[in-house]
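TL;DR need structure tokens for one chain.
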Amino acid sequence: MNPFSSFDDRDTYLIRIDNTAPHRGLDSPERLKSLAESALMDTPPEEVFDRLTRLTARFLNAPVCLLSIVSDQRQFFKSAYGLEGDLAVERGTPVCDSICQYVVKEGAQLMISNTRTSPLLKQRDTVVSAGMISYMGYPVLSPDGFVLGSFCVIDHEERSWEKDEVELLGELARTVNSEIAARIRSKRATLALSSTSEQLKRTLGWADCLVWEGWVDCSEKEWNWRFNIQPSGLFHRLFGERVPPEDVGLYYRFQLPDQAEMDARSRRAMLNREPGYSQEFRVISEGQLYWLSESVTITPTGPNSFWLVGVATDITDLKQTQNKLRISERLTRTFAEYAPASVAMFDRDMRYLVHTTQWLKDIGKAGQDLTEKCHYDLFPDLPDE
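>> reply
TL;DR here they are.
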């Protein structure tokens, strides 16, 4: 029996995920409310998610990768790579035919090496007939820890999932979760801003964003700024206070490595009478680095005066995950570039993932970058075998 498993079977095991909400039943009102807030069900495909399913399938050498959102009645494929036939058209199944439902119920990463024999599956006919023989899924989480579905890979053959594959899927799934969390937090902030001033203060008192107003007088050489910062969950986390002091600068306690660029961007937007701007920047608070994403709207109030409203959200987790992916890709490419041997790596469709310089010389493509190009497109006269 696997030490992480809830099932006494070699084909099925679970790895518990920290910080998942306790309401994991498919019909839990709290979970369904969070699912509705995410606005992921029954929506068109989006490139940001399609790119992640495509890359995940290639990195894990899996024919299928899904971002499956699970309600109490069915599962919906927000993004799907490698599906064919009716499943690709319908983009979902009844929840009773879903493996992803068990990821939601358990709040855990689920690995199944053989769905034909796994004791977890109560109904397996649809799964097996669709060629879903091995499965690995990681919980898709809301910012509050509710499990909304599963980010999963599927193989058409029996497969034992290796430790590095389990860890890689977790890293990629957390990127999906960061994107979803940023959307939900942005949506919450937008809804809060549309309410009355008093409602806004009550709502933002615990929201994980930072909302501020700024009034700027540009009539003198030294611009005069005045700020009003709304109480919020993110403000409390960064500043350690619930109520902002009066007449203070916006990020007055922090080190801002990007401050020069931030000041220049803000001034340029106002001088050019732009409606607003967006930026990502670093904040160092008590030795800890945060990344914030901020959207600012600008309204002229006079010939040389402006009113600014900004909404900032914490994207530190997303940046850390993206950095890990960049490091991994850079190491792979560095190895490929400087390795003396003639080596190339392909995905299942014979598209290049990486290649060495010597490989390019050997196939007569020196100096070219063949990443994501199909080997058979480059050499159409090669026999299929």
